[in-house]
Amino acid sequence: MKDFNYFQPTDIRFGRGRIREIGQVVSQWGQRCLLVTVPTIPIFTELFQNVKDIMEESGVAVAHFEGVIPNPTVEVVSAGARLAQEHGADVLLGLGGGSSMDTAKAIAVEAAHAGTSWDYLFFRDSQPTDKTLPVVTATTTSGTGSQVTQVAVVTNPEEHCKSALYHSNLFPKVSIVDPELMLTVPEHITASTGFDVFAHAFESFITSNGSPLTDLTALEAIRLVAKNLPPAVKTGSDLEARTAMAWADTLAGLSIANAGVTLPHGIGMAVGGSYPHVKHGEALAVVYPAILQYTYKAVPEKFARVGSLFDPSLKELSDEAAAARTCGIIESFLQEIGLSLCFEDLNVPKEELRALAQASLILPDYKSHPRVADLDDVYELLTKSCRS
């Protein structure tokens, strides 16, 4: 067994109805909270108001920043940071999906440091210090794992770049994972975020940076996704499936927090940076079939193990044969959840794929892929992800 490190400081509060603890949780970390969410559309009105009421009953003064957008930008983060400073916030609550939680983390950095969140990306000389405001999260989707990671993804539209802050000070202090908050997530978003769970778990399993512990959490997350994502997509009110997906999301988040991701996520980030209308799960789904075919011969035993979680009969085959079958199984899974896509479906022009390939190699994720790709490889993978 190889040596490894594993770090997870987040207090996880998992279970149905746990959102009712939000006042007690937030008040442990501050008395002036900035609530960070998407705009208050009708489907969220009751939830947002209930959360504010619970916090205020616990003596917490709440200001509400509701400017979060998909693929949150540096401008969005700066607007939230200004409100945090005006409110004198000493704690943040990210309530929502990955965009809301990531925005809260980035605001926690910018509100307490000079410059903007973009000045504290993972490769910068300046990194978040202990002045970073504490963040509590309550996730309403099963997808990004942000509730248990040290990552905050931010987009800079001027640079057509999507990148990340990455620091241990960004781990949420407490995360509430309440499956009841996920019952109204629409079908396509359930599928898109749910496939992100699979991708996190799968990539943390095949990476060279994994460990026996991340392998355990990743494989269990994959097993849960294989069984529960289709019913969650089909019947959003299926609380058992939602609970299982919430747990899979958390396990996959624990996996990537310590093992990281690989080539598909580098490409997915580049797609989101250049084409912010594309959901992260869609960006992954569109390239996964080609990447699976490109990769499976490099780690056949790992592909075989993943495939057997979808189809136990693969255990009767050799690793090589099972690995080849696994590619088709995951493609069929994408079709089942409505995510069998090509770049034309996402309005990504074919003539821009060379530039997209170059952007896909900016983040270091590809270096941990079992078969390391160069620019020509990535361009070919992107081309194969088109209809023609």
What would a concise description of this structure say?
The chain is an alpha/beta fold.
**Mean pLDDT across every amino acid position:** 97
End-to-end C-alpha gap: 45 Å
Q: Give the amount of beta strand, in percent.
A: 5-15%
> What sequence of helices (H) and strands (E) makes up the elements?
EHEHEHEHEEEEHHHHHHHHH
- Please give the count of helices: 13
- Uncertain ranges: none
Output the radius of gyration: 20 Å
Major β-sheet profile: 6 strands, parallel
Structural class: alpha/beta
CATH architecture of the largest domain: Up-down Bundle
Number of strand segments: 8
How many domain regions? 2
Overall outline? globular
Helix content: 40-55%
Major sheet strand order: 1-8-5-4-2-3
CATH topology of the largest domain: Dehydroquinate synthase-like, alpha domain
The CATH class of the largest domain is identified as Mainly Alpha
CATH superfamily of the largest domain: Dehydroquinate synthase-like - alpha domain
Describe the structure.
- The protein is of the alpha/beta class and 388 residues long.
- The protein has two domains: 11-182, 3-Layer(aba) Sandwich (Rossmann fold); 187-384, Dehydroquinate synthase-like, alpha domain, CATH 1.20.1090.
- Helices cover 48% and strands 11% of the residues.
- The protein has helices at residues 22-27, 42-57, 74-87, 98-110, 187-206, 212-234, 239-259, 263-274, 280-295, 300-310, 319-336, 353-360, 375-384; strands spanning 11-14, 32-36, 61-65, 91-96, 135-139, 151-156, 161-166, 174-177.
- A six-stranded parallel beta sheet has the order 1-8-5-4-2-3, sandwiched between helices. Strands 6-7 form a two-stranded antiparallel sheet.
- Helix 2 links the parallel strand 2 and strand 3 (61-65).
- The longest helix has 23 residues, at 212-234.
- The protein is globular, with a radius of gyration of 20 Å.
- The chain starts with 10 loop residues before the first strand and ends with a helix.
- 55% of the residues are buried.
- The model has no long low-confidence stretch (mean pLDDT 97).
